[in-house]
Write a structure and sequence with these properties.
The structure is a homodimer. The first copy, chain A, is built from 15 helices and two strands. The first copy, chain A, is mainly alpha-helical. Chain A has a single domain, classed as Farnesyl Diphosphate Synthase, CATH 1.10.600.10. The first copy, chain A, has a two-stranded antiparallel ribbon with strand order 1-2. In chain A, α2 packs across α6, α3 packs antiparallel against α4 and α9 packs across α10. The first copy, chain A, starts with a helix and ends with a helix. Chains A and B meet through α2, α6, α7 and α8 of A and α2, α6, α7 and α8 of B. Chains A, B: GO terms for molecular function: metal ion binding; prenyltransferase activity. Chains A, B: Its cofactor is Mg(2+). Chains A, B: One of its GO terms (biological process) is terpenoid biosynthetic process. Chains A, B: Keywords: Isoprene biosynthesis, Magnesium, Metal-binding, Transferase. Chains A, B: Belongs to the FPP/GGPP synthase family.
């Protein structure tokens, strides 16, 4: 194992443990009334996700907090913020899997929420995870001004794109991407549409995970009003480029791997004519594009020097993965 | 028309106009991409609701801001906060009407969201209204500490009840109430269950509308850290008592009015054996209980004196209504 591989393995293992501890603390127990919804929320949240968004959030928080960060640990509240982002991701998956949307029975190797708990409970479990995510952010141990900045950025990122033209906003939003994805079904995918859907549907939440982590890290480092505009712009560029690269790699894996290797229904995107990067550019060009996007993402973090190594190693690992 | 009737008519008319102006400003236009979801969000939001929650919010804000409030107008941001609460109410109705839940085709005299736009778009439109509500609260023109207090209180009120045992919280939450309502279907309704469902499903959002309005009004009146604990406790008691009274009156009207008079499918609760107050206590006792709850609600506002008249007149009107 190389040094880089060891760093990444440590980040992924520690990050997943910290995220799961935070989720365990924040999600109501299975014996909390009403039972069915809390069981459904936990079923989907603890179905074996990689915790990519929380880990990116915590690493961005640590990088921005810098030498002020006590013992170079993850800043206070970053695990809770990461858990909130994972709740938002899980809520979007639960609703996306519903019969009226993607109608998927299998997710992360487990029955999807509506298969296990029925459609009504799955709809409400998704709703409640969104609510609990915002509650968790509102309760972060950070100055109120930083909490409000994080709340605004996250809400814009997971919405339809409202306010995304404002300075500091991330355009367009996660739900907007889901709608564009539905509307694109059956039409021949174009390059422009594919990029817009990717940036919205998965890119916005990944990007805001990094930006929100930076805002929290900055607040703990006692900088002025949150992070500087330059820091936020650099984190956003890193998130947008790396997020798009992750999605391209996901789409390539969907076309080249079996369902068993992926833990979800493989070839689904092709089968339903969904707009994906490899469908437009082919598999080889997609791999080249992902590598270039990661190089651009790394450039954005240049001013952070050595402190950016964990985040960069993690991104490199994610585009190099084979399943 | 008596003086009280004139006061109430003015509150309802002005409040609905202010709410609609705020919603018009905050909701993306029907020509904003992606079209389908923004049209669906507007279809349900502008389907003729009474704007009860926003109006209660604005009147509570005005009452608490008191003589500090410039020209005794609605405090700055109260209409936007009211609009956010109406978005949350609308999102819950859209999801509640879905085939997997209540399967209702008619709401406020209009086709429900999934009938007009399809199930996928209706699910995502509800999701996006919840997101936009939290974004709107995060962007309120108020000190960050007050914004965070309002956001926490609202998130707890519309969730499953997580954190509802904390001081300042409202137990249990709106989604929790929807789940209890689903779980109760077909079972003989008991008095305890009916009260718990009412307090959660509709009471929590009504109560937090009044509490959040008070927190905003207090922040504008330059009191110390938001409203005093006594003020919040009194607003909460008023909201809980009056909210339960409104729901009892709603259930009585559902049993005694035609669909045409109500603008929604009448007798639905009886038909599906839903737990309602008149199903347990009968219609006459329900009317007596509603009157007693309103009297208790008024007692809680005694220290506000004359400033409480608009809020009290409004509550009285709502339990006296016949459709």
């Amino acid at each position: 194992m190389t040094d880089t591989q060891a760093v990444v393995k440590n980040i992924l293992t520690t990050g997943a443990i910290l995220t799961d501890e935070a989720l365990e603390r924040l999600l109501p127990g299975t014996e909390t009334q009403p039972h069915s919804i809390h069981r459904a929320m936990r079923h989907s949240t603890f179905a074996g996700g990689k915790r990519l968004r929380p880990i990116l959030c915590m690493e961005a928080a640590r990088m921005v907090a810098g030498p002020h960060s006590l013992g170079n640990d993850i800043p206070d509240g970053a695990a809770a913020l990461g858990a909130a982002l994972e709740m938002l991701h899980t809520y979007s998956l639960i609703h996306d899997d519903l019969p009226a949307l993607d109608n998927d029975d299998l997710r992360r190797g487990q029955p999807t929420c509506h298969v296990a708990f029925g459609e009504a409970t799955a709809i409400l479990a998704g709703d409640a995870l969104q609510t609990l995510a915002f509650q968790t952010i509102a309760e972060l141990p950070a100055p109120p001004a930083a909490v409000v900045s994080i709340l605004k950025a996250v809400a814009i990122a997971v919405g339809t794109g409202v306010g995304a033209d404002l300075p500091g906003a991330l355009a367009p939003g996660m739900i907007g991407g889901q709608v564009m994805d539905i509307e694109s079904g059956g039409k021949p995918p174009t390059a422009d549409l594919v990029e817009r859907i990717h940036r919205a549907k998965t890119g916005a939440l990944i990007t805001v995970s990094i930006v929100a982590g930076g805002l929290l890290g900055s607040a703990h480092a006692h900088h002025d009003a949150g992070a500087s505009a330059d820091t936020i712009a650099r984190l956003r560029t890193f998130g947008e480029k790396a997020g798009l690269a992750f999605q391209i790699v996901d789409d390539v894996l969907d076309m080249t791997q079996s369902s068993e290797e992926l833990g979800k229904t493989a070839g689904k995107d092709t089968a339903t004519d969904k707009a994906t990067w490899p469908a437009v550019y082919g598999i080889e060009q997609s791999k080249t594009d992902a590598a270039q996007l990661i190089a651009d993402a790394f450039d954005a973090l240049a001013p952070f020097g050595e402190a950016a190594t964990p985040l960069k190693s993690l991104a490199q690992y994610l585009v190099d993965r084979t399943h």
